[in-house]
């Protein structure tokens, strides 16, 4: 596929993936169309050589895998991970907050967004709602996305804060509350949000037991730049990686060994959840595969030690106005291709042999790449790489595409880079 075609596919995937729940559902759609078979994570897997499968252990986590035609107890895993969540606002259980006739939505901050980038934008909500059912331990759940933007967070006029351009600290509890509407005679100021939600779901208010809802930026992504060399979009971190791994597992078919992708939730808040990377979930999943193939835990451990993991997340591109924030030589530009993220302190997981393998793979398939190291006085962010490799000790490398405005409501990347990321994911699962 050409760069613009892959960019268009990425933007379509992002538009449909307004929440981690939707990112998983859109991933399942791609896998279904490619002939993958769904497995129930709660049951024993039934597998065969040459099979293609996926399973959704939780609503925001997705695993997909392929089995080569040659199955042995010494085969190697090719594993790759990404995360489905992004920094945003999360709706609190009692969401109604009124002020002088204005209707607002009570929210908390999820992860580490750049708060002021969420102001003066069209916003909406997406996530999951739990409803009454006959079985108290099996409530009905529905995934919801309100397509029409109905929220915004307005800035205070400069006339009332003449120092605004010198920088203003936004208070999370008071300044980051989306405006929903104006009170009128038809609205109940104590239940307007839950009533709106019930109407969207076509249920009674009393049927709604709980919800997990996220405020998302409702603006579409687009190509920009003089020659459309950039992609600007919400949620590039980390749906770029989810898209690339889905394409890679679909298009890359090794004759032997097992290819696996794990799309986890909650990376932005530390991964310490049942659906996050810092849990026994991934290890349990691999053991279920080996048990279904007739092998024991000892054989699995042997395979793990000889396997390879890619932790795929975004990287920092050089900012033209803040060059002093970057290492003077180990930096990457947008459209430089895939970035190998290196940290001697293992905030990004790597080892020299793993980096060498990635370099040879890129050279073989003409995939552009750069090695990136943070400025020594700038800590930078973390990834799932160190977390997963502590559960599954194997050769590991952190890679991703370089981008600007990371954690903004709208982020920026190079158009060429998604093709490089897809090409590397495909080569990883094919070679």
UniProtKB/TrEMBL annotation:
<keyword id="KW-0378">Hydrolase</keyword>
<dbReference type="GO" id="GO:0005737">
    <property type="term" value="C:cytoplasm"/>
</dbReference>
<dbReference type="GO" id="GO:0008237">
    <property type="term" value="F:metallopeptidase activity"/>
</dbReference>
<dbReference type="GO" id="GO:0004177">
    <property type="term" value="F:aminopeptidase activity"/>
</dbReference>
<dbReference type="InterPro" id="IPR023358">
    <property type="entry name" value="Peptidase_M18_dom2"/>
</dbReference>
<protein>
    <recommendedName>
        <fullName>M18 family aminopeptidase</fullName>
        <ecNumber>3.4.11.-</ecNumber>
    </recommendedName>
</protein>
<dbReference type="Pfam" id="PF02127">
    <property type="entry name" value="Peptidase_M18"/>
</dbReference>
<dbReference type="GO" id="GO:0006508">
    <property type="term" value="P:proteolysis"/>
</dbReference>
<keyword id="KW-0862">Zinc</keyword>
<dbReference type="InterPro" id="IPR001948">
    <property type="entry name" value="Peptidase_M18"/>
</dbReference>
<keyword id="KW-0479">Metal-binding</keyword>
<keyword id="KW-0031">Aminopeptidase</keyword>
<keyword id="KW-0645">Protease</keyword>
<dbReference type="GO" id="GO:0008270">
    <property type="term" value="F:zinc ion binding"/>
</dbReference>
<comment type="similarity">
    <text>Belongs to the peptidase M18 family.</text>
</comment>
<keyword id="KW-0482">Metalloprotease</keyword>
